[in-house]
Amino acid sequence: MKTPIKVTIVTTAVVAALLLTALIYVLISQAPTTPPPEGGEEPQVVRPNSHVLDDGGDGAVTVVEFLDFECEACGAFYPVVEDLRNQFAGEITYIVRYFPLPGHTNSTNAALAAQAAAEQGQFEEMYHRLFETQAEWGEAQESRAEVFRGFAEELGLDMAAYDAAVADPATLARVEADFTEGQALGVGSTPTFFVDGELLELQKWNDLEDAIRQAVKGDS
Question: Distance between CA atoms of 142 and 145, rounded to whole angstroms?
Fold first, then answer.
């Protein structure tokens, strides 16, 4: 991706995220929350069941993104994230977690589709399909679950297993667990990034790339 294009995309995404932050905060604060983990367990940025897109191996910098597949800012960051994954291949472990915002009609439906695909080993394929088609279904006021089911068919998934996973309360619980833990970690909007466990406050268009580069170089 050429730098001027990347600057425009990220700048637009950051501005959009800032404009929506107040509304999103209100929506999240009003959403029902799941009880905290038993035994007073501390929230974790990464869980054993978190979805790993790139595994950089021992010593790699860990980058975690809490995302909403319907979020326009996440969609705008998507090509930037893909560029960074390529740029720092082998140096970072890139992980994504669900954070479906209450104000988006199909954010949870999209997350359910991704999780159902994950159960058949095709999380990343569905991840790409959802972001690449976001403009076609995002901001719809009615369910687009059938659209996502169509993506599953195109990916060649076992549709009986896919349908069962989408309908399984455990799948929804898996998505909601990420959302609840994100709240406990201080996530208030999407996309939100953590670099080696530290919450990154995006203020400039290149903050994510700079934070990754500094962590890779070992700078404090």
Answer: 9
Q: Which residue has the tokens 């994100």?
A: 182
Helix axis angle for 169-184 and 107-118, nearest 10°, is 110
Residue 115 lies in a domain: yes
Report the CATH number that the domain containing residue 196 is assigned in CATH.
3.40.30.10
Say if residues 122 and 84 touch (Cβ distance below 8 Å). Answer: no
What pairs with residue 95 in β-bridges?
52, 64
**pTM (2 d.p.):** 0.82
Low-confidence ranges of the chain (pLDDT < 50): 6-7, 9-10, 13-38
Residue labelled with tokens 């990034």: 193
Burial-class residue 94 by CB neighbours within 10 Å (0-12, 13-18, 19+).
buried
Residue 74, both tokens = 């996440």
47 closest CA partner among 179, 191, 167: 179
- Percent of the chain having pLDDT more than 70? 81
Q: How many domains does the chain have?
A: 1
Write the pLDDT tens digit of every residue in 17-45: 444 443 333 333 334 344 444 456 899 99
